[in-house]
Specification:
Length: about 400
């Protein structure tokens, strides 16, 4: 009898397990008959450079944004140190339609006609891939050809430029990355940011690959160059030889890498605001707490807390609500929830249930909004027919904007 009582009490305790703040918000929102959204909700689309090379594709992107009631275009203008506009700093991309002298300007003009906000999306630290350099018609003018010393080296002193495509793909690394401690590289990038801000009427700058390469913590070590060693010696003041033998060396190097990225983002933010105080600085960020800190050194929650970043676009590219909710739980924080944008990976063909949960969860926590990756999933009919269009439109349009004289429901 006593054993039975204990079992019943245990089951009751499990069934009444206290919800997390995220779960509580989501549960509360789901029970509201009248769904609401922020009046300034971001409903965005990442548009990659491959869909920026013809007027037809740009026109399709704008048309689809209107069809899906999207209001913000994140337009990739810098890929692998090649750009989608006439630049005085970097070479223009290959295969742009001859009649399209300035793809980015054309996009901005078309977007403006429909009140679509535009952010300039720049790949930051990732500079090159072997296959790209082999095929790029302006390879001799490429950044890594002129400044190979700006690229990271591994634990063997080998530049990432010397990696073969197969090696990069086998280790889930994207390409050759710039050294974020290299002051010349950082100054160069800030000049590029300034050029774009001064040249175009945009909402802001959007950063991608603002991190170290994904080296699977401990498998490959990027940061044995003199710049990283010097910074590490400030934490552990030993000679180079003694430092490399110290059991705490890698921990100190982790700190150096996190600080390097924090400082770089801070410098970019200051540059953006110096050029135009009204421009936003946003970034596409990893949504996995452990990997964010230990693999790619992208402490974006700190960037939000320190006001180095206006909004973080969380790349929650999942096919299962369990994993989406896990990531939302990990990063839930009332301090910055309202500056999160939930990124949905349409390219993975998530179910209608997952898409609807992701969008509703963004509204439940008071996030800035949501963003779809990527534009090609909407503009190509053979892909669009696989993405649950009706369900997407249903959830996008189900909520009423709080600017219509309403107040948000309050928890009791």
């Amino acid at each position: 009898m006593r054993l039975l009582l204990i079992l019943v009490l245990f089951m009751l305790s499990c069934s009444t397990k206290e919800k997390t703040p995220y779960e509580s918000d989501l549960d509360f929102y789901s029970k509201q008959e009248l769904k609401t959204k922020r009046s300034d909700e971001v409903r965005a689309l990442w548009i990659v450079r491959l869909e920026m090379k013809t007027k037809s594709d740009i026109d399709k992107s704008i048309s689809k944004m209107l069809e899906y009631n999207l209001n913000t275009a994140i337009v990739q203008v810098r890929g692998l140190a090649d750009v989608l506009y006439p630049s005085k700093i970097e070479p223009i991309a290959d295969d742009i339609e001859e009649s399209l002298a300035d793809p980015f300007q054309y996009f901005i003009e078309q977007a403006k006609l429909h009140n679509i906000k535009v952010q300039a999306w720049l790949n930051v630290n990732m500079l090159s891939k072997p296959k790209f350099l082999q095929e790029f018609s302006k390879a001799e003018k490429h950044l890594v050809k002129k400044n190979p010393e700006w690229v990271l080296v591994d634990e063997e002193g080998r530049s990432m430029l010397d990696y073969q495509q197969e090696e990069l793909e086998a280790d889930w690394m994207d390409g050759a990355y710039a050294n974020p401690l290299n002051s010349k590289w950082k100054s160069y990038f800030l000049t590029l940011v300034k050029e774009i801000q001064k040249k175009y009427e945009i909402q802001g700058i959007h950063l991608d690959f603002i991190r170290y390469p994904n080296a699977k913590h401990g498998k490959r070590i990027f940061g044995l160059d003199e710049l990283h060693l010097t910074e590490t010696q400030k934490i552990i003041p030993l000679s180079k030889e003694e430092l490399l033998e110290n059991p705490h060396y890698l921990q100190a190097l982790d700190v150096v890498k996190l600080q390097a990225m924090n400082q770089f983002v801070k410098e970019i933010y200051e540059e953006v605001k110096r050029n135009n105080a009204n421009h936003l600085l946003t970034a596409a960020v990893w949504a996995h707490k452990e990997k964010t800190l230990k693999d790619v050194y992208q402490d974006w929650p700190l960037w939000l807390k320190k006001n180095y970043l206006d909004q973080a676009y969380m790349m929650i590219y999942v096919k299962d609500n369990k994993y989406h909710d896990l990531r939302m739980n990990e990063f839930y924080n009332p301090i910055y929830n309202d500056r999160l944008v939930v990124g949905l990976g349409l390219y993975r063909f998530p179910s209608a249930k997952v898409i609807q949960n992701q969008i509703r969860s963004s509204r439940a926590v008071g996030a800035a909004g949501f963003c779809f990756f990527s534009g090609k999933m909407l503009i190509y009919p053979e892909l669009e027919k696989k993405i649950n269009k009706e369900s997407i439109l249903e959830v996008i349009n189900e909520a009423k904007s709080l600017d219509q004289g309403m107040s948000p429901p309050q928890k009791l």
